[in-house]
Request: fold
Amino acid sequence: MPPGAPPGLGTAAGPPRSCALMLVLVAVLGARPEATRSVPKQRRYEHSPGASSSWWDVEHEELQRSRSNLPRAVGPHRPSPLLHPNASTSSLSHNLGRELQEKQFSCDVLLKLSRYISADTFGPGLAWNLFRLYDCDRDTKLPKMSVRPFKMVRHKLRPFLLRRMLRLLGNMGVLTEGQQHKVFALLKEHMLKARKMPPKPKAEHSGPCPQPAPHLAPWHPGSDTRRHAVVGRGEALRLESSAAFHSLVIRDGGKVVFADRPHGPPITLRARYILIRDGGELHVGSERCPYASRATISLYGRAADGAAVDGFGQKFLGVGRGGVLELHGRRPRSWSLLDKTLHPGGLRHGPYSSERRWGSRGLNLRVLDAGTGRVAAAGRFDTHLRAAECHRLRDFLALQPEGSVVAAAVGDSAARSLTLETRLLLRDRLSSQHISRLGYRQPWALVGILGGDPLSTVEDKREYHGNGTTGLAVAQREFLTYDGTRFTVTAFSGWIKGVPHNGFKVEVSKGIILHLVDDVRSWLPGDRIVIASTDYSMHQAEEFNLLSCPECKSNQVKIDGSPLYLHIGEVIDGIDMRAEVGLLTRNILIQGEMEDSCYGENQCQFFSFDTFGGHIKILANFSSVHMSGVELKNMGQQILGSYPVHFHMAADVDERGGYQRPTYLDNLAIHHCFSRCVAIHGTHGLLVKDTIGYDTLGHCFFLEDGTEQRNTFQHNLGLLTRSGTILPSDRNEAMCLAIRNHVYGNYVPVPSTDCMAVSTFWIANPNNNLIENAAAGAQDVGIWYIFHRLPTGQSEGQYPEGQAEHTPLGVFYNNRVHSNFKAGLFIGKGVKTTRASAEDPREYLTVDNARFRPHQDADPEKPRVPAVIDGLIAFKNNDHGAWARGGDIIFHNSGFSDNGIGLTLASDGTFPTDDGSSLEVSRSIFVGESSNLGSQGGQNSYWGKGANGEYRTLPRNKTFPIRGFQIYDGPVRMSKCTFKKFTPTADRYSSAIGFFMKNSWQISPQNNVSQILMEKSVGLKVFFGRAGQWFGSNDNDGDKMSVFHDLDGSVTGYSNIFVGRADNYLLHHPGCVTVPRWNGVMCTGRYAQLYIQARRPENLTLSIARAAYHSHPLQLQGVNRGAPYQQYQPVVMLEQAYIIQWDGRAPEDIILYPINFNRGDWLHIALCYPRNTIFHVVKDIYQRRTGMVHSIKHYLMAPSRNSVLNGTGEQLFYFDRVLGYLFVHLQAHEARQGHSYCSQQGCERIKITAQMYPGGSWSCAPNPFSQRPAVSQHPVFQHQALPCRACGAPQLAITSTPSVKYVRIQIQSLSKADIQNHLTSAFIKINDTTFLFNSPGVFFVVLDACSGAVVSRRHFDTVTGENVANSVTDYVQTFIKERSLVLVCSRDIGDKVWSSDMSVFTRLGSAKPIVFHREGSFAMLGYKGRAKPSWIKVLNHARYQKAASLQHYVPLKTKEYQCSDNAFSQNHSEHISAGTAAPCD
Reply:
């Protein structure tokens, strides 16, 4: 080797060693881009080797599947000098998992692979000895070994692989040149036939698998909790057994690696703290070689034990300057979504349990639907004392459908009056063997099928001996529902200590199987999962352990418990409400060791449990930190700075900070922790991905000081976020009132405004990315964008005042928020950035006011940059689905359902400081009360009747007025949105469009709507409120001024219509139309705002009336009571005369602004003053941003009123001293753009200064203008809107998988009873096309599952038809093609098929044959094909049940259908056009 040559560089005699080893690796790793996750251990050898394969073939396939097991390096290593990485991509591109740069492999990794792949050929012993002495860093003289290369030819190794192996051995000096030539000659024939090799994988910059490195020394330190262990310079240790220390410090280049021995005992490392700094390294697995064993790092100690370590505290795993922390466990899928609704107890109608003692004498019966497990009827028949009960029992059984499950149990005694006729009936109908001989007080239980054969019955009896204890007679049998769920029915009867016992149970058998959206084969038996709530209460989240499930498909798991609550697993009413299901178990666990209960100074007045957990803290200038596949439990402390994972003032941690491998947290499970989940403090460019935060205290994913930027949160799940004590915003009401250490003086916090803001995602700077996350339950808010006017904490002074509020929003895409108490998404508010003082006694960081005004480069002098919320799903949030204040903010492609208020858009709304920002929502769906009825319990407070008469959970209160889109301030715009199911009830109002209640602020007439679709289920389109509960007096200024503009008539039916409150006569004219149900009025015309400032005095009530309606004035209280000036903002009709009066002497200073006036728009205004007043009137233009005034012109006193009102353009005013009115002509002369309130030159205004003397009367006549009747603008009826085919959201459904298209299916069957009650509408509806069925029978409509096109329809007459069962069977088996959605509907099923066993329906997804009920009804959503999708539904109702009806959103062209690329071009398919009704004969 030449002097100074880098280690590993080859000489002239041969290629570099790492190059030779790389050839081996290339042969092994067939690059497969889609392979991103490791294969579960138990599935590694799914195919045994055949006669023509070797173990290498199996391993080779496994390596290809598991390419992600060999990712990037974890620490310093010696890479091959021949391999160089490409330039790195941008941080966001890297973080989003896009194409990564090529990375280099280390020699050590190549060496390990060489050992691995040659073990089969050479044998394990020879392979190990061959490579054991080979050193990547220096020349090594290898021993002579007997290697027979011809043996390798006889093995079924791939020729290209063998060729490279031989070259490697030759370069190592193991094979002679002659041996190589002979073997190569034998290979020629094989190589000509060899299949093409897979493409070479991109080289990765990554280190070796850490634990097998030969330079690591085995370490067995034992357990000594007094030892302060230090691993320092020159020490590289492999921890091979569990250990315990007082502390462990790894520094000065020291290295500790956990040994990975999957079949050995797990390794646990216990310490009060572990500190890694100054080049120290801690490795558990690596990106390339995820840890396969089980490892635990356990942090112990009480809060008062020992001294804190400076900068870290107590009970921590810390990374300081130069430290390396690489934790890489197995990477299972972190979380998925339910793909089939999970009902309480696992059964559609829930489990059933009943147990009685005294008071149940006689025969107790339960009748169940065999297809669902639902208890359909129950009865008790006292056949012991009353013979007449036998007749009632016989009648009861005669009413039950054949094939029903019957469970019977004796209570006390049933024999004395049980007649022979009744005994024989029970024997024959239930196949009982013991009922004929049932004796006095004899326990007896039976489960059977009504009318079934004897083999279908299970029964048991006990003998009664009079001693008071017989034991229980138990009958138990398993059944199958139509959807494939196995359930057990149990009946029991007996005597225990002289007390009779009997009862029944219906429950799922042998575990409940969950259907998930994704492949979850990486979830293992014994793992623990959590299923999120899909109701208003986050406390309906439930945990379960996983059971072994050999019968499960790749997207199924089996749980060991019984769910208490409903968890939705489908798209309902167009909104994706599927519950998140998160995996809480990882094979690397970091935990805090906890006491049994709270103690000491740990906020025990709020928490009964110990909150002093462990924590991980990473400081600036670390060398490398990456964590994946790690579980964190019992972590965090109710102490500032001690969080489960905390990046503390680490600055840029991606390429911008010099990190070639950007820092990330991936696939973590953080649960049952005591202070946040991930805290990002003064840190930028961090990727947090696939991480779960569950059951934690305080803000979960937390940005701290307001400076944190460019961080990416991708596909994380947070749920059950509870209140904590650290910050005011963390606290609940009790904490807020009790914790007053940092307020000034005796100030008592106001919980609703100072605190109560705990959030799953607390985003303190808008320049961060949120992509595909789920906030599935917080005490207050799911995602909160909060704005620090100034940087706080240790970041003080890092940016100028207001920068965060002006910073453009990062990426917000496809996030979900639900089950939060206050709001799903909240954009607005800030934190107090000053310390408590006499001037403002509130605590530092108390929730405060702030407005989001994004501008280019965060510079308010530069253009606005819209903040785009693209793809938000918000459902079952108690108060708001989303609230956004500021501008410009745009919501697209979003869905809102079952929220107290779906969406409130509140513009910046602070004229004159706001320059006219706007907000918009488009292409979105709003649902009032969906078919997700919810579950009682889990802290759901309100349960009442819904609009459809069914009981359901409710938001806020039974009487709370539900609104889909709430207008506040303005201007706000809404376009291309769909509304469903907003219908008032006797208890509450429910409207599609509503207004902010008790609103004292302005409402802009520029608020507008267009292309809106109100479905037929909307019973109240618009509502302006009424005095009463929730609305109060409904008499605030904003209440009276509520208004919006219907541009195209899609809401009102009349185009270019303004809609205001019915009693607002500032809007009225004779052509208006009142809508009493809305408490509204529809008017044509042109409208704007008059902004009035008044000073000296500032507390007057203003009365304003239009001259044409002077007897209907509006009283305005103003906004700023007690402020230096008062402001009033009435909406006015342009080019009209208005009268302004006061409830006292007029103010001395008045400023009139024409707001939203276009050039040339004008008003005539008369203001009431005392008769002796002297005026100074000035016109100017006020530039709000700079505070400068220009274009000042002084008004002159005019000789007459007409000279002022004629609008000559002169600056004139006239004061009529007889009437006491000052007349001015207010006109806009400058052009206004967009949504700005004023022109670009500034706001034109008239300033009136009045000098009034004591004694003058300040009352005036009602109308100083000449009496003229009100002029109609244009009657509303002349503006009839045209039908709108493009109205509504373009998407049928808003889901978390936007690329998947859906078809909406609705099936309504009719039974004979329904028809007798004059119901005639049996139909199948596909999107907006309805197929009506007017004849009795069973109807099929078949769709292609790939395109959604209707390909077949068929009717089978069950009244007069012959061989109906055979005809249906032939149709399904012969005429319905594979990959078909099959919709089945019935109308008045006749006697010809009611007793037929229709096994053909199992071809469409039913788990068992269908037996139609006589005079019943049937509906089915089925699928014919190889797959069995989770959306299959079967409803088979008896005559006494409500007619079978179902609706579902079915995905098209999914992977399981195996559609071809041309699936959307179907032959012989029907064209479905919206709104058609197709009768079917």
